[in-house]
Specification:
Order of helices and strands: HHHH
Strand content: under 5%
Distance between the termini: 77 Å
Shape: elongated
Largest sheet: none
Radius of gyration: 28 Å
Number of helices: 4
Helix content: 55-70%
Length: about 110
C-alpha cells in the first residue's frame, strides 16, 4: 500500500495545492491510487477495502484533503415559486382524491 501512497503523493505534487479540494484537478491520480490499492490487496489475497487499507486511505485523505471541509453548511430556502408548487401540489392531489371518492361513492349508489 505504501507504494500506492508514494505514487499518489508524487502525482499530487504536480497539482497546485489550492486545487486539492477540487476533484476535477486530480481525478485521474485518485483513480490510479484507488486502483493500485485494489490490486495490491488482491495480490496479497485480501479483500478490498479491509481495515488496514481503509486506515491507510484515511491517512492519505488527512494529509491531502483535511482542509477541504466547509466550516458550516449553508442552508438556503427555496424560491417562493418552488415552495408554492411544493405546497399546492399535495393539497390539490388530496382534494382531487376526495372528490374522486365522493363521486365514485355517489355513482355506485346509482348503479345498484
Amino acid at each position: 500500500m505504501e507504494d500506492c501512497g508514494e505514487q499518489f503523493k508524487n502525482q499530487m505534487m504536480h497539482v497546485d495545492p489550492k486545487n486539492w479540494c477540487n476533484l476535477t484537478h486530480f481525478i485521474w491520480e485518485y483513480y490510479s491510487f484507488s486502483t493500485c490499492t485494489e490490486q495490491e490487496a488482491e495480490v496479497i489475497g485480501c479483500y478490498w477495502p479491509n481495515p488496514q487499507v481503509e486506515s491507510y486511505i484515511i491517512t492519505i485523505h488527512k494529509h491531502f484533503f483535511s482542509n477541504c471541509t466547509l466550516d458550516h453548511m449553508v442552508l438556503l430556502d427555496p424560491p417562493d415559486t418552488t415552495l408554492t408548487v411544493l405546497v399546492l401540489v399535495p393539497v390539490m392531489l388530496t382534494l382531487a382524491m376526495v372528490a374522486l371518492v365522493v363521486w365514485c361513492s355517489k355513482r355506485s349508489d346509482i348503479l345498484v
